[in-house]
Amino acid sequence: MRNTFLVCAIAVLALGLGNAGPAAAQAKPGVERLYILNCGEGVAGDQRDMSPGVNEGKSMDFVDNCYLIKHAQGWFLWDTGLADAIAAMPEGQRPADPRMTHWKRSKTLASQLEQLGLKPADIKFVAVSHSHPDHIGNVTMFPQSTLLVQKAEYDWPAPLGPRFKPEQPVNKLEGDHDVFGDGSIVILSTPGHTPGHQSLLVKLPKTGALLLSGDAVHFKENWDNRRVPSNNDSKDKSVASMQRMADVMAKEHAQLWINHDKALRDTQKLSPQFYE
Ligand SMILES: [Zn+2]
């Protein structure tokens, strides 16, 4: 009787120690939370370049998002938005061609990081969907972060805006990339809009799987009808990438979050609120 009690007591003690051991003290693996940062708003003068043959001559409202993700192994930023300098322009940035988008910024990226208690140096990885100015506008704010970009995009002699600095640490990708090796943040190669365009699959603990589009699609109606903007780099690759995204969404039961879709963002929580 006495021995049985002792054995039980030791077993309970061992269990208790097991629960409080180093494994339990560690942070949960994978993604903890995702913030949508307001990285701009704009009005395209004419929808014709976005969806040829549809709503030509009509203007269209757009938004521009950055997505900040807290992973157990570090902070990850997806896209850097329009340059923060645009926030100081009273009328925003007017395009040379009135058919293009007139962008404004109501808040800077820097101020939104600061609100969360973060400095640019706290961001371990900065990945960009592609190198158009409304996605890489603040990439130089993160000289210590490792840039994750497709080699095809890095080497592309794009005609627009600021590009990458040679001193920036960079991992030039050639295809898909599992950022932390646990499947929770996976870059997917989705060329077409630009030669090295990429999208992002994120697995959140409560919200579930999300596919962040980049500019593989600009708004839901174009997605539903598989429409390709006239100024994309390759129409065939654009269509193939949308099909690939649809396949991934079906397999992963993922929601599609379209970066520039204003109607979608109007329904979403913006930083400092977050998704788990
Ligand atoms: Zn673009």
Query: Kindly, what is the distance between the CA atoms of the first and last residues, rounded to a whole number of angstroms?
Result: 50 Å
What are the bound molecules? zinc ion
Shape: globular
The total count of strands amounts to 12
**Percent range for β-strand residues:** 25-35%
Written description of the protein model:
The protein has eight helices and twelve strands. With 276 residues, the chain is an alpha/beta fold. The strands form two sheets. The protein has a seven-stranded mixed beta sheet. The protein has a five-stranded mixed beta sheet with strand order 8-9-10-11-12, covered by helices on one side. The N terminus is likely disordered. It is globular, with a radius of gyration of 22 Å. The structure holds zinc ion.
Question: Helix and strand layout, with pairings?
Answer:
Blueprint: H1 2-20, H2 22-25, E1 31-44, E2 60-71, E3 74-78, E4 101-104, H3 109-115, E5 123-127, H4 133-136, E6 146-150, H5 151-154, E7 170-173, E8 177-178, E9 185-189, E10 198-204, E11 208-212, H6 220-225, H7 235-252, E12 255-257, H8 262-265
Parallel strand pairs: 3-5, 5-6, 6-7, 11-12
Antiparallel strand pairs: 1-2, 1-4, 2-3, 8-9, 9-10, 10-11
Bound molecules: zinc ion.
Residues 130, 132, 193, 215 line the site of zinc ion.
